[in-house]
Amino acid sequence: MLLTHEIAIDAPVSTGPTFFAAMDENYLRWHPDHLLFEWRQGRGLETGVRFYFEERIGGRLLKKEVVFIEIVPDRLIRFVPTGFLLRLFIPWIAFEFLADGPAHFRFRQSIPVRIGPLGARLNRRDFDAVRRHMAEEGENLKAILETGRPVHVRPDSIPAEAVAEAAPGR
């Protein structure tokens, strides 16, 4: 099974990898369910760099350490889980940046999952939550690169003035 999401972004293709090269600064604003990001060995977009992240997907806390295995400048970021057991089920994760012109590209996330049809059916809710999460990440990346602000945010990150202005009766 291949979990995938693709979204068109109106920005130069180089802005995508630049965002990921500064993931220590961008991870929390990329999705409201992102909790922690740490470079573990090296920094930035280079083969062999390891990083750790925590996120909630479908209400479950996930903690992962991964390593970059392939970087093609302005085109591809591919990484793998460092844990042997998880790598049996998820052999790699890829972010592709597909240029459509000087100021347009498509961002594609791909996660192949080796689970078989019965496993996919039994874990359908979990995979649907991953698909939703990937779509929200894509929507936020688009919004951040096009406007500088994400569309999906943590409720506690909204300024009090904005909450007051949106309150009924105002």
Automatic annotation (TrEMBL):
This is SRPBCC family protein. InterPro entries: START-like_dom_sf. The lineage of its organism: Bacteria, Pseudomonadati, Pseudomonadota, Alphaproteobacteria, Rhodospirillales. It comes from Marinibaculum pumilum.
